[in-house]
Amino acid sequence: MRRMPIGIQTFEDIITGGFAYVDKTAWIYELANEGKYFFLGRPRRFGKSLLVSTLRAYFEGKKELFEGLAIEKSEKEWEPYPVLHIDLNVEAYANVDDLESGLNTNLEQYEQIWDLDDKITDKTPTARFHKLIRTAYEKSGQKVVVLIDEYDRPLTQTMEQNKTNDEIREALKGFYGVLKGADRWLRFVLLTGVTKFSKINVFSDLNMLRDISMEAAYNDICGISAKELEDNFKPELEALAERNSMTYDEVVAEMKKRYDGYHFCEDSEGVFNPFSVLNTLTKRKFFYYWFETGTPTFLIEQLKQGNFDPLRFADDITISTRSINDYRAGGDNPVPLLYQSGYLTIAGYDKELDEYILAFPNEEVRYGFLNELLPAYTYTPPGGAFSVNEFIKDVRVGNADGFLTRMRSLFATIPYELNDQTERHYQLVFYLVFTLLGQFTRAEVHGAIGRADAIVETKDAVYVFEFKLNGTAEEALKQIDEKDYALPYEAGGRKIVKIGAEFDKDTRNISRWLTEPKQDYR
Question: What is the pTM of this model?
Answer without folding.
Answer: 0.90
